[in-house]
Design a protein that fits this description.
The complex is a heterodimer of chains A (176) and B (877).
Chain A lengths: L3 H23 L10 H10 L9 H29 L23 H14 L1 H12 L4 H10 L6 H19 L3
Helix pairs in contact in A: 1-3, 3-5, 3-6, 4-5, 4-7, 5-7, 6-7
Chain B lengths: L15 H12 L3 H12 L3 H18 L8 H10 L5 E2 L2 E10 L2 E8 L7 E6 L7 H15 L9 E6 L5 E6 L4 E2 H8 L3 H20 L12 E5 L5 E5 L4 H6 L17 H5 L5 H17 L10 H10 L11 H10 L11 H13 L16 H4 L1 H25 L3 H24 L5 H20 L5 H19 L10 H21 L4 H21 L3 H21 L5 H19 L9 H21 L4 H20 L3 H21 L4 H20 L3 H21 L4 H16 L4 H21 L7 H16 L3 H21 L4 H25 L2 H20 L7 H20 L1
Antiparallel strand pairs in B: 1-2, 2-3, 3-4, 4-6, 5-6, 7-8, 8-9
Classes of the chains: A mainly alpha (176), B mainly alpha (877).
Amino acid sequence: MAATKPLSRLTDEIYGELRRLAGAVLSSRAGFDSFQPTELVHERYFRLPGLQTIDWQGRAHFLNLSAQVMRRILIDCARKLHAAKRGGTPVTLSFHATFNDPALEVDVLAVHDAMDRFCVDYPRHAQVLELRFFGGLTTEEISEVLKASGHEASIRTVERDWTFAKAWMQNAIAPN
Amino acid sequence: MPLPPTENSPRGESNPQRVEALFHQASELAPAVRSVFLDRECGDDVALRRTLERLLASSADAENNPGWSEPAILKVARASADAADPEVDRYRLLERIGVGGMGVVYRAVRSDDTFSKEVAIKIVHWAAGDEEILRRFRAERQMLASLEHPNIARLLDGGIADDGSPFLVMEFVRGLAIDRYVVDRKPPLQALLEMFRRICSAVGYAHRNLIVHRDLKPGNILVTDGPDGNPEPKLLDFGIARLLDDSGHQTRTRAMTLEYASPEQVSGAPISTASDIYSLGVMLYELVSGNRPYRVTTSEMDLAEAICREAPRSMGAGVDADLANIILMALRKEPARRYESAEQFSEDLRRFLDGYPVVARPDTRTYRARKFVGRNRLLIAGAALVAMTLAGGVFATVRQSRIATRRFNDVRSLANYFVADVHDAIKELPGALPVRKIIVGKSLEYLDSLARDQGDDRELQGEIAAAYEKIASVQGGMFSPSNLGDHAGALASYRKAAVIRERLVAAYPKDVTVLRELAECYSSMGSTQAQSLGDLKNGVALLRKAVGFGERAVAVVNPPDKEAQNILADSLLMLGDAVGNSSYQNLGDAKGAADLYRKALTIRERLANAAQSDKGLQMNLAQAENRLGMILNSQGDLTGALVPLRRVREIDESALAADPHNVSTLINTGSANRNLAIVMSRAGQRKEALPFAERAGEIYQQVVREDPGNAGAKRSLASNYYAIGSLMDDDTKAIELFDASIEGFRNIQKEHPGSAPEVGWRTALQYRSEAENRLGNTAQAMESAQQIKAITEELLKVSPDNFTARDDLYLSYSLLGAAYETLGRKTGDEAALRQAGSWFRQAVDGYSKLDQKALSRSGRQAFAKSTEALARLRAAR
């Protein structure tokens, strides 16, 4: 018992902090286009004080939670942005600075909306998608998270799941 | 060719596992053979075939779509950045020149300025609406604006934009980041080091002003060609990392850039001037050798690990050994073993340039794993040194400076930075107590010396008094959860503050601020004396003074000052608590307390009605209503009490709905539910009360989860356990909750050994004793009663006037009587029955000497029960 207490305390602390941070980043109009993906997301996770000291079980738990929190925050933010653009053309939340073809966009809200359906048949794949797309985790980290929740999850499994998840989602969100 | 996802979407008829397996198999085949494969596997299952074809086509699209390779947060952040306004306050934004963890930087001009001087504006969008950050922001901006150094970009202005985001306006520097500059221009070593020494001078200047940069990196040092052709560095963003970083949360490292971060920043240990020295070292390492001190890895975890544990790599044969030693000295893991100041660093570089022996020696220590991070002892030693260095710095500055404004800053720095930050930074470390005491002692010493020759500068006097108050709260303030428990010391500091403030009131008898602050000082002092020390007589006298000055503050201006009214209401409430609220240490005058509460309530109602949308005022109103409810309840007017208590709950729940993670709102809402539940159950509505009690438990658990250091929440959680337990019909189950409650209170006491024990602790023990007795476990019943007795006897030693303690002492007699009576009846043991009689008699004797009207509800019941039991036992004999 004594060993789990500081851990849970730490996780909660970091969890609260993360929620605050991510919310803060996106609270209104902070721009982050000069950031590399890993820099942005990992910076936020790994600079949280004390994370280095938790064991893997706890870390996996935390990373999993983080992805869920991140998803919630991003969706809230995306909805707000949509709402703010009332009247005009709907904002697309997906364009990338380096490519202009709208067919190559991934709409965050559409992915979110399709997640429930995906989860019914493919819960593990949905989790991989959540961890990667919303949580920004690497394949290795996703593998740790899945292992901690009792899945067989080699790197290869995670990669295959991700390939399948992308295909499924791409199909689900593709414009008519 | 993607198809509509609606009908026949990939989920559905076919077995998902099979779909996936076939998908992977088909993916690995060349497109040409796929259809053969699908023909074979799907047979005449048309739906399966279509599903797979669609998935395979989508997979090709997905793999070619770079949109999948970036996380969602980037997409959202970009969309949100795109919605930015071209104007902020009086400034027109010209172009975005930088984006960082702390905000967006624009080049801008003042829109009303004919000279159109260019400035840089940093807008911190994420801080919008965060009251704590904004408050700090305003307080510190002034201090940053006073930094004047040729190598520091000046802070020109700042404010809050229309959307609530704070922004800073800085001198616009058109230059190259230092690393780019060095790569492009390749200055000779001599010029490079001279330039670096100017950076050290700027950093040292800021440190003397107690400002630590915390995020020194090449991007924050821009270099231009000076008029003499020499490179001229300018440091950006001084102190801004801290300004934006500290919002009362644990993170001290968020804004930093890992590559240049010190081990203490990476591991979350306290940050000091030595952290900037370290970052300077990393930069110089890179500028001189072209490399970073640690092997570049892709994993931030690995880099963080290396920073804390690995020795820097060799700088290579091309770097002079003395210069390498200088740089490595700045890069030492332990802050205390680096250069003591930026000047010393710079001085050693000068010695190197002039060909003298340098101070830095090769580091002979080996860095073993965990040496730095693993052992708190080292951290503490480091923190102690930081503390001493800073204290030295403050003293030195004071000796040099005679100007009042300068002192003004010193005092403020001392109070805000030294006492609050350094102390806060180390308070969680085990074994930090001696260091914390040193900090407080040093600060007091310094303040005392200042106070002696403070002259008559009104502002400075006010600041000194405020600093004393801040130290007092660290020593043993009633509302400071992590105080040192030195309540007597706290009172002494409050008294010093009060003496200064009294003098100010004498000099400015009509000044509302001066009066108000004195009232506030007395109310903190009075509540500490009454509640923390349990010295009610003197505490109440101080609180009466607070009310007196509060009334004067309200009366001097018309219309009355809002803040003054608030403080008056606060003082009235605290006075009421001590006068007769049985949830606090009190004198037993419940009616007096109710009158005081009503006065406070009137003031707060007026304030809240004048500004309906002000959440803070609504909460203040709820607080006053709550106290009134509590007191009416304790007087037995349950129906009367339910009215304010229901209102409190409504106000709190609606505040919580608007801000579901706000810790103080959570706590308030928890208490509101709990109190309502308690009173409802007393009014005979036990069943209706249970949901409110459970809601309260849920909320407190959330608070303890979100804010594990929160002592108030732990207390509330402990109280709530016994409240829920008391609503249960099953004694065995209830006892579990009482035990949890008692355990909680015991831990709180352990964490605050100098404080008077919580009143709720006794209640939990009482409930446990009664429940055990009902179950016939007389030994346990007696044990709990004995604990109440011991606690209250201890309290009465401090203050014989403590009515609650006396009430509860007699309650413990009555509980002991009841337990012995049960034992006697069970075993037929005459001696036990005699014991019972003797306890009941002592209870009756005690109670009959107390003011009956002031007795708490449990006291009245215990008195009645004891009287009855005594008669019963006598009759039996």
